Every structure is written in C-alpha cells, then in structure tokens.
TrEMBL record, chain B:
Alphabetical keyword list: DNA-binding, Phosphoprotein, Transcription, Transcription regulation, Two-component regulatory system
The name this protein goes by in its record: DNA-binding response regulator, OmpR family, contains REC and winged-helix (WHTH) domain
Positions of the Response regulatory domain: 2-119
A Pfam family annotated for this UniProt entry: Trans_reg_C
Example GO biological process: regulation of DNA-templated transcription
One term under GO cellular component: cytosol
Molecular functions (GO terms): phosphorelay response regulator activity; transcription cis-regulatory region binding
InterPro entries in the record: CheY-like_superfamily (IPR011006), OmpR/PhoB-type_DNA-bd (IPR001867), Sig_transdc_resp-reg_C-effctor (IPR016032), Sig_transdc_resp-reg_receiver (IPR001789), WalR-like (IPR039420), WH-like_DNA-bd_sf (IPR036388)
CDD domains in alphabetical order: REC_OmpR_PmrA-like, trans_reg_C
DNA-binding region coordinates: 127-227
Length: 489, 230
C-alpha cells in the first residue's frame, strides 16, 4: 500500500524538479533570444550605416544627365557600390529615379516612396520571397536632383527573424527536452535507494521492530536508516513499557482477585449446601461470616445472586490471567528464555484432564485423537495456547456436543509438519468473521457464552511466537469450528 | 481432618478457610512461614496449604524446611498456592517437597478436589486403604469392598482387575490413560494387547456399576472412576 504512495511522491518530485529546472531554462532561452536579437540589431545597424555611406557614393555614380531624353543618365558605379552589389549577388539591388518616381536606372522593384526631404530613409520591401532593407535618399547628382535607393537582402534582422526557430528556439527546446529526460532518469536513480529502503520497511511485519542493517544500506539513505532505527528503538521501548505495565497490572490484580474469588467461591459452596437458607454477608475481613448469620449489619444474598457474583469473579480472574498470558507471549520478552522440547501428546492429555470436569458438567463429550509429536517451544505458552482453544470450544459448544483435541504429524509435500488441533461441533465461526476473531476483545456478534474475546488472540500470538500458523476452518460436514496450529518443519 | 493454611492475604485466607470449614475440614490459619514452622513443630496436620508469596520466609523455603526430620510427617501432603505461574516456580515447589500446586486465582471446588486426591493418596500410604465413594481397596489385605447403607459387601476381583482398579483409584478423580493401564498390566503379562485393558475394564464395570461406581470411557484417552447418584 505504501509503494504507490512513494511512486506518487517521486513523480511529484520529478514534476517539481522539472518545473523548477525548465522554467529557468526557458528564461535563459528567452534571454538568449533577446541577446541574439540585440546582436542582430547591432549588425543591422552596421548594415544601415553601410547603406547610408553607400547612398552618396551611388548618387555620385550618376555622372551626367542623359544625352537623349529616352536614355538613362550616365552611370559609372563607384567602386564601393560595385563591391556592395558584387558581394551579395541576388540579394543586393539599386535604383535611380527622378523626383517623380520614374525609373531611370537599376531594378524596377526597388521602388520606395519618394522622400520629401534630403534626409535618408529606410524601408522594408518584399521581393521574391526575400525581405529587403531599402535605403533611399533624395539628393543632387551629376544629373540633377534624383532619388537613389539601395536594397540589401542580407539584412541580419530579417535573417534573424527567419532563423529564430532554427537557431534559437530549437536548441533551447532540445535542451529542455533533454533536461526533462535527464531529470526523469536522475530522480529514478536518486530515489532507488529510498525506494529500496521503503520496500524493505514495507516487507516487515508490524511486530518486527528490529533495526535495519545500517552498514548494508546505501550511503545516501544511511542517515534515514539511522533515524528509522532510532525510532524503532523508541517504539520498541514504549511497547515494552506498555507490555510490562499490562503484565504488572494483571499480576497485581491477581492477588486481590484471588481473595475475592476465594470468598465468593466459599459463599457459593455454603449457599448451595444450605439451600434454601439465605446466606449472611458482612465486610469484616478479620472474622469471616459465620454460618449462623447473627452478625449485626448483615445483609442477605440469595443463592442465585451469589452464583452471579461468582460467575463475574471467575470471568474477571480469567481476564486478568489472559492479559498476563498475552503480555508474556510477546516475542520480545521470550528471547531470553530457551525453548525446550515439548511433548504435544502429554500436553493434550494434561489439557483433557484439566477440562474434563468442565466438559462433563456441560454435557460435552471431550476426547482425544493424539499421536506422538514433539515441537521445540515454550511449554507453558503452548499449554496456554491449547488451553484457550479448548476453553473456547467448551464455552461455545452447546450441550451434547463433541470436542476433540488432536495432535500428530502430517506429511505434506515431503515435509513433516507437526500440528495441534481442536475441533468442536458448535456454531462455528462464519468465514467472514474468521479474520476478525483473532483480534483482541473481538467477539462474534450474537455469540453466546462468557468469553472475554482474548482466547483466540492469545492462541494466535503464541502460535506466532513459535513461528507456527493458526487457521480457523469448519469442522466435518461443514459444522462447528476447527482450529489448527501447524508448526514449522 | 486437620489442615494447616499458611497464607498472608486475609481475603484469600478467610475465603479458603470458609470453604474448607464448610467442606468439613478443621482449618488452622497462620499468616507467616515462621509461625507455621513453630506450629508444625508441636502439632500435627493431615495436610498443609502453603502460599509461595509469604512476607519473610517464602512458601518454597517453608516447604523445604517442613520436609526435614522432626518437623511434620513425611506423608503429610503439601499443596502450594502461587500467584506466579512461571514454570520454574512450579517445578521448584514440586522438587522441594510439595505434592501439588495451584495458581491464584483458583476455583474453590478445584482446590477441594485436589486436596481430596492428596489426602486419599497419603491415607493410602499410611492405612493401606484406597477409597473412592463407597468403594474401598485394602491394599495390604488385598480386599475390595463396597459400603451399601450400613452393610459392607466384598467384591471378588481377579489379579488383573485388581491392578486396573488400583491404578484408577490412585488417580481418581483424574482419568487414567489406556497406555498407563497397559503398562501397569505388563507386570502380569508380558505380551498383553491393548484389548486386554478393555476386557478388564468391562469386567470391572459389571462388578462395580450396580453399586454406583462407574468407569467412564474418555474418548481417545482412557478411563475415569466416577460416582453415579443412585
């Protein structure tokens, strides 16, 4: 579930990096364009200057008025003008007109408006797909007042505009694209250690708070691993503190509960023995209530009330016991204790003995189906596990039911798997509820009986400590509940 | 039956005392190991119930001391009570001379059942008579009898039937496994089959069930002696 989030994070970061990098790149490109334009502008200004210098030379080139009216005036191109025209063949042209605009010499298309003053003017002219810079001046020549014009198609400003796309924008776009790809690749590369670390953390079970190997982590994420380990240690310490608190609290509760239970049990026994005589109750600790009931301030409790009281006391005692068992079944507190070889057959027989009376009292047939089997584990924990399973089976199976404790070795796929199983033919657990009944204090809605909702949670926890798997299933003919604990080979 | 209860918690002690008194036992209650040692030196009890978590001298130490010569009868059963449920304490308690243990908080009927079993075994050790309800097995005289009202009826048992019944009686009210019964029988027969146990059990049933003593089969395990209300 975390992976996609991390992916989203990296792509988010990638986008941000892209934006952060591409925007300055674009700005740089614009500055480049501007600078380029500026330099083109300067070059253009130099061109203009040159055209301006050439205009008088052109004017001077008109030496004399035409001999005949129909002929053009005599023209002898000055060397600078000749050079100019030769330098840019096809891109340079000139024209000489009279003040009325009639073409006397040069190209007809070089036809700017006739200036009204003597000052030189600049125009742009489109001809043959080329934009020309045209300088025009009205001035005195050898043939009287004429209008001379020079057209230059090599105008840098015009060329700049044409080449803008190719020369300026394209490299920048390529640069931006390349930067994008580079960022994509780099972010992936840069985040790989982080993604790997996230994977490693992801694969952990929520109970595994052991430190991540710092030395084996990539250098880039080592500080993060260090911080994570520190956090794990803190959480561990806190969980440990909490576990110890629950254990202490449960432990401390047991002595007063033992007192309470001993009292109530005694009253219950006396009450049953002396039915229907009511039982006196007083609160003076030092002198237990006497049977004669002559104590001042005594109240009278009926047998039924005492039974209820006893019932509640037993439940409370069981809860305290289970809380203690649960806190002790914690993997972390067990590391110190060595595991021993546990005879499961003995365990099943011992459990049968201790639950026989309860089962008989409820009219259940409690039986065994055991073969010799051993596991390495903690004897008292496995006893607690099985005891919770049997206790549940007895509690939830109605009178006349059958409860069977099994153990043995299964042969599956060439592996010997030791198992422990409790089957009953009670109401069972619906498939949808099976995942949830393992949760602490969860009880199947509508279930009868006096469970605390901790039994299966404890069993599951203990199975986990033994690296075994606890599964719930339906019994034979789909009835009842089968709880199976399979131990690792 | 006189019992010694060593327990420092007033609530627990008064509850147990109340229950035991109600069940017909005479109970002497002391609150410390030192006081218990003193009392045990001068007086005798049929059984002792000792809490492990005593203030100065703990219950384990007391159990160890009372097993010394001149303190109490070696046959006196000791049942220890503990709020600690670590295996270590239980094993140590049993190693140091306790006969059984119970973890607090406990249910009084269970305490009574365990106490009865302990007392029956210790009595058998001293008087050589194992009894269960109306059934009595005089192991010295090898005589089995059933009390009915005021009369006593002798039951004729074969040697293998005797072995099975003796084993069941020693363990009552706990069930006895078929394997263990088979082991007990191999003293008589080297090549005995598991079926033999069933044969002797069914013969015993024929002799005992008319008198209200049942041998209940425990599926997959063995048998248990039970009393049937008549």
């Amino acid at each position: 579930m975390q992976r996609p989030r991390l992916r989203a994070m990296t792509s988010d970061l990638r986008n941000r990096l892209l934006i952060l990098l591409v925007l300055p790149l674009l700005a740089l490109a614009l500055v480049g364009v501007w600078l380029d334009y500026r330099s083109a502008d300067e070059a253009a200004a130099r061109h203009d200057q040159r055209l301006l210098r050439l205009l008088p030379a052109l004017a001077d080139s008109v030496l004399a008025p035409p001999i005949r009216d129909s002929e053009p005036p005599l023209l002898l191109l000055a060397p600078p003008v000749e050079d100019f025209l030769r330098q840019h063949p096809g891109y340079a042209a000139y024209s000489v007109r009279d003040t009325s605009g009639r073409l006397l010499l040069g190209d007809a298309w070089v036809q700017p408006a006739v200036p009204t003053t003597q000052a030189p003017e600049f125009h742009s002219l489109e001809y043959g797909g080329v934009t020309y810079r045209v300088a025009v001046q009205r001035g005195r020549t050898g043939a009287g007042e004429l209008v001379v014009a020079l057209a230059d198609g090599s105008d840098p400003r015009q060329q700049w505009a044409q080449q803008l796309l190719l020369r300026v924008l394209l490299p920048n776009l390529v640069l931006v694209g390349a930067a994008g790809l580079a960022i994509h690749w780099a972010v992936r590369r840069a985040f790989k250690p982080l993604v790997d670390l996230a994977d490693a953390v992801e694969r952990r079970s929520p109970r595994d708070l052991s430190p991540i190997d710092e030395a084996a982590s990539p250098a880039e994420v080592r500080p993060l691993v260090h911080s994570l380990n520190r956090l794990f240690a803190l959480v561990n310490a806190q969980a440990e503190g909490q576990r110890r608190f629950v254990a202490d609290a449960a432990h401390q509760l047991r002595t007063p509960l033992a007192g309470l239970q001993a009292q109530v049990e005694a009253w219950a026994m006396m009450a049953r023995a002396s039915v229907p005589a009511p039982l006196p109750l007083n609160f003076d600790k030092k002198h237990p209530p006497a049977l004669d009931g002559q104590v001042p301030g005594a109240i009278v409790l009926g047998v039924e009330q005492i039974e209820k009281l006893r019932h509640a006391t037993r439940r409370t005692s069981q809860l305290a016991h289970q809380l203690l068992a649960l806190s002790r079944a914690d993997a972390r507190s067990l590391d110190a204790q060595p595991s021993q070889r546990v005879d499961l057959k003995d365990l099943c027989e011992a459990l049968l003995e201790s639950f026989l009376d309860a089962a008989t009292g409820k009219g259940l047939d409690l039986g065994l189906d055991v073969q010799s089997a051993h596991v390495a584990g903690h004897d008292w924990l496995l006893r607690e596990l099985l005891s919770n399973l049997v206790d549940n089976a007895i509690k939830y199976t109605p009178a006349g039911g059958v409860v069977t404790i099994r153990c043995g070795v299964r042969h599956a796929m060439g592996l010997h798997r030791v198992f422990l199983q409790v089957e009953d033919d009670g109401p069972g657990v619906p498939e949808a509820e099976r995942g949830r009944v393992m949760q602490r204090f969860y009880r199947v809605p509508g279930s009868v009986g006096e469970g605390t909702g901790l039994g299966l949670a404890i069993a599951d926890e203990i199975a986990r400590v033994h690296h075994a798997t606890l599964t719930l299933g339906a019994g034979a003919q789909g009835r009842g509940l089968v709880v199976t604990v399979v131990f690792p080979p | 039956m006189r019992l010694l209860l060593v327990e420092d918690d007033v609530m627990v002690a008064s509850g147990i005392k109340l229950g035991l008194t109600d069940a017909g036992y005479a109970v002497d209650w002391v609150g410390s190991g030192e006081r218990a040692e003193e009392v045990l030196r001068t007086e005798s009890f049929d059984a002792a119930i000792i809490d492990i978590g005593l203030p100065a001298m703990d219950g384990l130490e007391l159990t160890r001391r009372l097993r010394r010569p001149g303190m109490a009868s070696p046959a006196m059963p000791v049942l220890i009570l503990t709020a600690r449920d670590a295996l270590h304490d239980r094993v140590q308690g049993l190693d140091w001379g306790a006969d059984d243990y119970m973890v607090k908080p406990f249910e009084l009927p269970e305490l009574l059942a365990r106490l009865r079993a302990l007392l029956r075994r210790s009595q058998a050790a001293t008087t050589a008579v194992l009894s269960f309800g109306p059934l009595a097995l005089d192991t010295a005289g090898r005589r089995a009898s059933i009390r009915t009202d005021d009369a006593e009826q002798v039951i004729d048992l074969g040697p293998r039937e005797w072995t099975v019944l003796e084993y069941l009686l020693i363990h009552a009210p706990k069930p006895a496994s078929k394997d263990k019964l088979l082991q007990a029988l191999t003293g008589w027969d080297k090549e005995i089959t598991p079926n033999a146990v069933e044969v002797y059990v069914s013969r015993l049933r024929g002799k005992l069930e008319p008198h209200g003593v049942a041998l209940r089969s425990i599926r997959g395990f063995g048998y248990r002696l039970e009393l049937h209300a008549q």
